[in-house]
Amino acid sequence: MDEADPLNRLDTQSGTMARGDRRSRLPPSSRTVRTHPAYRLDQAARLEAEIVTASDFARYRDDWDDLVDRALIPNVYMHPAIALAADAHGGRRIVVALVWRVSGFRRVLVGAWSLAEFPERRRFFSVLDTALNRLVFAGTPVVDAGLVSEVLDKMLDAIAAQPGLPRIIVASDLNADGRLLPSLRDVLARRRSRALVVGRRRRAVLTRRAARELPDQPGASAKQRQDFRRRGRRLAEAGIEPVALMRGAEIADAFQAFLHIEASGWKGKREHSGWAIRLDPALVPFAAEMIDGLVQAGCASIEALRQGERWIAFSIWLRSGSRAFGWKMAYDEAFASFGPGRQLSELVTAKFLSDPALASFDSCNGSETSFHAAIWPERLELVDIVIDARRGGSVSGTLFMIVELTYRRGRGWLKAARDTVRAYWRGLRSAQ
């Protein structure tokens, strides 16, 4: 599928997906489980939008919690705690587009979208990006399920009208399943605003079935299940025990241990793209404040393995409303033969299955060679979209879309060429 499909030609995934991929669509049961009804507009109600700072957004946490219960697609990465952490430690201005349903003296939050300002993207353009940094894995706006189109339209109007704010939006990792993307397409068509899909990806997702629980080992073969049980017995014999951390001062100490273990393993090696958080000192305080804020809000948990006083492995997962998100995992490679990553994944999966309020689990890992991709057959469709918030579009917005698409395609070609050369030299060395 061509990455450069205009957004106004992008339809629901059921219409564009190849026949062999239809099994990866999220079933109806994965839709948001709402505890409050979505709002509708009536003659006495109107929508008002505003652009606020991260600090202002943090004052509306009760309103945010209420919105999550009514959201079309809950997204923990839009949480006020993450906006605050990014604003304090990211070096970029964070703004949040809020939309309120106003009726008389009552205001109800019906939309929230956090964005970071990048004043020199590709050197010449000032843009807003939902990817506040590389630890934020979803940019879907959180909108009331009953007012999707109306809220999206108001958000774009607020961004376009705000003095000094970029009008070009890079919506990264936007959820392409369900109703959101078709609604955005319709809104942009009515506004005659220009938009372009510049990236697509898929990542493993686990969802509840309509009439039954998922099996304990989803997607695993009999041999894999046997190996998992064997390694579990070895862990117990070695005195390695699971520990669940959800609150208190123990979180801070455990998180520092996680950072150390992650940096000590393969993620800490720059030849593996340097994924460890500690390799970027600017990310360390952001990550610590983010996790602390989400833990206090009841939106983050740490599952760990420990041998006495020695930490062995960590899996940090997040939640928002009916959705869970896998954030980060790391383990001491001296214990690799015990399969600690698989053990923790099973623990987290069991926690997910035991909570009836959770409907889906986003792995947040786009690699098809990852553990989750191997055993979770469903895939979540994501897109990166460049949007010109101005009605009717603009020359600068169109020019940026061309530049961004050219840059991404060029980077993809270079990466493919590099991988080909590396594979060639590995083949030569193995033949010698």
UniProtKB/TrEMBL annotation:
Start and end residues of each BioF2-like acetyltransferase domain: 222-350
Origin species: Bosea eneae
Record region (Disordered): 1-33
Source superkingdom: Bacteria
UniProt cross-references to SUPFAM superfamilies, sorted A to Z: Acyl-CoA N-acyltransferases (Nat) (SSF55729)
Protein name: GNAT family N-acetyltransferase
